[in-house]
Amino acid sequence: MVAMNICCNPRLVSALVLALFLCVPAQSAKGADSQCAVSRELAERVRESAADQAEAILSRLALACDEGFPLAPFEGKVAEGLAKRVPPSVIVTTLDRKLDAFGHAAAMLRQCGLAARPDALAVLGAGIFDGVPDATLNGYVCAYADQEPGPFLWGLEMLCFLSRAGFDDALTRSVLDAGFEAGSLTRDWRYFVRVVLAARQRGVSDGAVAEAARAVLRDHGSPSDVSTRLGFTDRDLTGRSSGS
Amino acid sequence: MVMNGSSGRKDAGRDNAALDALIRDAVRRAPEPVPPDGFSARVMAGLAPRRLSAMARLRLWLTRPRSVTFTPLRLVPAMAAAVVLLAVGFLALERVNAPVAMDSSGQGTLPVRFVLHDADASARAVSVIGGFNGWQAGASTMRHDPAAGVWVLETRLPPGDHEYMFLVDGRPVADPQARLTRDDGFGNVNAILIVNGRHEHML
């Protein structure tokens, strides 16, 4: 066996070890950046299915990335369009509308003194895209900007669902006010719209639902307590999503 | 008197120089004294070692060249261990950065049943497309129940709100039973399924 004798400078060895350790966080940062990059699988699907509009679609996704918007809603919309065989030019138009909605959402948050955080952008951008009135959203964001991020976001989701279901804005605000005043707006309240829809099926008015919700929130209760208070339950333990 | 004094100092100087020369000569000729055995070692041992500062020791350690002796055969396991350590490190980082996913047992998911009426059995293939399966047409195929005249898919979904549509023979069809819907931006209507974490509420 041949033994080798090498004279090495510890300074050089230290530099190499340091470079190796610096390489690891750099790789980690690269991984974090890649979360913003368009997934390779989706890019391939776009190139296969959208042909001449592929670059236009991918450039919109890159723009969303550059603007610091959460990419998942944009990627999801492209995948949805491809699955539904929507003409690629319509996908491009829809992405442009979504970009505008998210840009508007970012401006709205900043205008009310809030950072354009991805989670808030996703909910607010989706609300604007879905046509929730600007005054409704802007009123909420500026009125509750000083709330904790969690309840602020849950209240915003609740507001968007209720608005889409046609629940009166003033009633929504009265319920939100009660929740924030009592500090009882939990994650479960995001889907308060379930109770509203179940109550409507039973002929209960929106006003009665809002009144029950305010009382329950003052008692730190949950949306289930609202239906109990109204005399029905919206439990469905069958696991069915829709009529069978 | 002055002259005599000066002459006396010169004589004394000459005498001193002669004496110095005599002494130097005597020392040069004197026998060299031999120190006793171990004298040097005892003297060195008696000296207190000089303590360097931490920075000085680090600088010395960094700048002093070192010799490393190795055999290529012994280097192979060390290199292999280094490669394995790096690979484990990178995999751990990938794991940290990866999005949270449900495990294969479906833990954290809840049972959901999609149903589409088709009494006259007019459809040949029906599937559910939605955000939960990446809007992939082949991911959630429904089975036909001729006795009940329905297409059925039983699956598991995580808590949250999920948009979906049926894909009937490749054509998107909105769920006619859905109570909560959303415009998809393409001119269609997606149904919204809300799955509650406590397995109490479905919509």
Description:
The complex is a heterodimer of chains A (244) and B (203). Chain A has 244 residues and is mainly alpha-helical. Chain A folds into two domains: 38-131, no CATH class; 149-234, no CATH class. Helix content of chain A is 68%, strand content 2%. Chain A is built from twelve helices and one strand; from the N terminus they run E-H-H-H-H-H-H-H-H-H-H-H-H. Chain A has helices at residues 10-34, 40-50, 54-66, 72-83, 88-111, 118-129, 134-143, 149-164, 169-182, 193-201, 206-218, 223-229; one strand at 4-8. Chain A is globular and about 70 Å long. Chain A starts with a strand and ends in a 15-residue tail after the last helix. Mean pLDDT of chain A is 86; it is low at 25-34 and 237-244. Chain B is α+β, with helices and mostly antiparallel strands and 203 residues long. Chain B has a domain at 110-195: Immunoglobulins (Immunoglobulin-like), CATH 2.60.40. In chain B, a hairpin with a 5-residue loop joins strand 8 and strand 9 (189-195). Chain B is rod-shaped. Residues 95-105 and 199-203 of chain B have low confidence and may be disordered. The chains are: A mainly alpha (244), B alpha+beta (203). At the A-B interface, strand 1, helix 1, helix 4, helix 5 and helix 10 of A face helix 3, strand 1, helix 4, strand 2 and strand 5 of B. Strand 1 of chain A pairs antiparallel with strand 1 of chain B, so a sheet runs across the interface.
